[in-house]
Amino acid sequence: MRFISETSSDGNCELLFILGEIPGVLWTPGGATGTRPLVLLGHGGGQHKKAPGILAHARRLVAECGFAVVAVDVPGHGDRPMDEEYNRIATENQARVDAGEDLAPLIAEFQALVARQTVPEWQAVLDSVQQLAHVGTGPVGYWGVSLGCGLGVPFVAAETRVRAAVLGLGGALASAGAAARITVPVRYLLQWDDERVPRAQGLALFDAFVSAEKTLHANPGRHGEIPAFELDSTLRFFARHLG
Amino acid sequence: MRFISETSSDGNCELLFILGEIPGVLWTPGGATGTRPLVLLGHGGGQHKKAPGILAHARRLVAECGFAVVAVDVPGHGDRPMDEEYNRIATENQARVDAGEDLAPLIAEFQALVARQTVPEWQAVLDSVQQLAHVGTGPVGYWGVSLGCGLGVPFVAAETRVRAAVLGLGGALASAGAAARITVPVRYLLQWDDERVPRAQGLALFDAFVSAEKTLHANPGRHGEIPAFELDSTLRFFARHLG
Questions:
Q1: Mean of the per-residue pLDDT values for chain B?
Q2: Cβ atoms within 10 Å, residue A180
Q3: Strand partners, A72
Q4: What is the ipTM for the molecules in this complex?
Q5: Residue in A213, A215, A227 nearest the CB of B217
């Protein structure tokens, strides 16, 4: 793990790092010492580790919960080079959709392929970040919607350190198989008028989690319009399960 | 409005009253003066104004939000005499269900009948309670699930003083018509494994509210098993919209 830069503002310390080929960022409370809960944030498609939604979650988890927060670029996103194979598949998929094929199974297949790379990458990131003295091996949470759900569900299913997860804007076709192996508390965010994920697909994914505690929060609006008050609720969910 | 008794414990003042034929209870913070938000709690079928779930909500809304809270007995419940007409219909309905008829349309018809009585009753209760100096004409909220939803939806649709409502465990067949006239923020509680309300009926009722802000909270479990953390969430919802 190679440190690139460290900056502080408003009591929030931001550390940019590279782990192998993975560019990442770790946020911690200024002057933090000792073990604390750690939340991994998974960004959406076309976004990156410091996209506005990721930053908003990171800053509040640090400031209001005192947690450590980490985010990394998904392959082909942010500071990572274009991935030729993923790019070729994405281009082919677009052509198949243009020719009339259904988008959902193509997304499902593509996310499954990328997850085979990101699950071990994210596990390596947890390994390294938890070795830092001001993070340590406390409880871990995961947050991710849309692509962050498609990659997050197999990650949460595989990674026993994760104790609670906020997921959403995903579908059963892509994620129900792995969801059926998730037993930790889940908060699931669904947009009632999602133009990208059919409502029944989102409801079926919520249904698939085998967690004893899982809560669906559905709000009106399109894919990108999760209301701001759900962030408040996410903070309380993580505080309750990791704090 | 005739006062029956007033008791205080742990900073919570409980006033039993009768308004016409309606027995009710008003909870306020001890020593409260001046106007404050008021929440009307609608109890479930077979319950009453001081059922454990109602008491739990009342105590926390008073203690943690400083609100006034009022609950009354639905006709045929609690301290009210058996209502012969309602009783006859309920007995007939039970016989029809035993003979193989579908329960949902019978419940819908029955709740619509009772609501024609309870909507004006509850409006009269608001009128009287808001005349008390330590309640006043502040913003009003409504909470009710199951029967409290079946009677609550037409009440919230009719009563412009209500600024926010928590509803749940109801169905579209009984309530979609009135729900389509509700525009205030709604929190809707659905039990994913509800043995009394088919899941599709609950989802369709959530769909029917025309409120710009409405959030569905769905949790695993049967009709009577709403998790305790939803009460925390209800308090925050009312604090945000009435406080």
A1: 96
A2: 14
A3: A24
A4: 0.91
A5: A215
- Which of B212, B217, B240 lies nearest to residue A217, judging by beta carbons? B217
Architecture of domain B2-242: 3-Layer(aba) Sandwich (3.40)
Provide the strand spans (E) within chain B: 2-9, 12-19, 22-29, 38-42, 68-72, 140-145, 162-168, 186-191, 214-219
Which residues in A lie closer than 8 A to residue B233 (C-beta atoms)? Answer: 233
pLDDT of residue B103: 83
Q: What global pTM score does this model have?
A: 0.94
- B48 contacts B25 by C-beta, under 8 angstroms: no
Q: Is residue B121 within 8 Å of B22, Cβ to Cβ?
A: yes
Q: Name the residue among A223, A215, A212, A208 with its Cα closest to residue A175.
A: A208
Q: At what angle do helices A172-179 and A103-129 cross, to 10 degrees?
A: 40
At A168-209, the pLDDT tens digits run: 999 999 999 999 999 999 999 999 999 999 999 999 999 999
Q: What average pLDDT does chain A have?
A: 96
Of A50, A94, A38, residue with least CA distance to A74: A50
**Residue with the two structure tokens 């509210």:** B209
| Side-chain half-sphere exposure of A39, counting CA atoms within 13 A | 32
| pLDDT of the residue at B107 | 87
For residue A89, the distance in angstroms to the closest alpha carbon of chain B comes to 36
- Residue A68's pLDDT is 98
Buried b (16+ CB within 10 A) or exposed e, A80-100: beebeebeebeeebeeeeeee
DSSP B98: H
Domain boundaries, chain B: 2-242
